[in-house]
Amino acid sequence: MKHLKNLFLKLTKSGKGFLLLVNIVGIIFITFENLYYSYGMMLYKTSFANATEEFWSTELLFGGLFLLVVNGLALIAVIREKHKKNK
Asked: What is the reported pLDDT for 56?
């Protein structure tokens, strides 16, 4: 358990590790939300095939948008920091 704690602390101190952690946690939350909304509709007589198709389409859309926005903001922050250091 102590080894996992040290690994977590090491990851959160580095910028790349923290970004990786944010990406993983964000994708997990998006996946759970998409599972709930896609397969929850099966209670209202939606077929399993339609629910699965809807899940994958929303997963790709929201997951891709999340990754683009978060990583884009991180890239902008890095470029901004480098620009400030050069002045």
From this structure: 92
CA distances 74 to 5, 28, 39, 71, 81, Å, are 25, 19, 33, 5, 11
Helices (H), the chain: 2-13, 15-39, 48-86
Give the integer Cα–Cα distance in Å for 23 and 52. 23
What is the mean pLDDT of the segment spanning 14-20? 78
Which one has a higher pLDDT value, 46 or 58? 58
Q: Is the pLDDT of residue 35 over 70?
A: yes
CA atoms in the 13 A half-sphere facing the CB of 32: 5
Q: Determine whether 51 is exposed, middle or buried from the number of CB atoms within 10 Å of its CB (0-12, 13-18, 19+).
A: middle
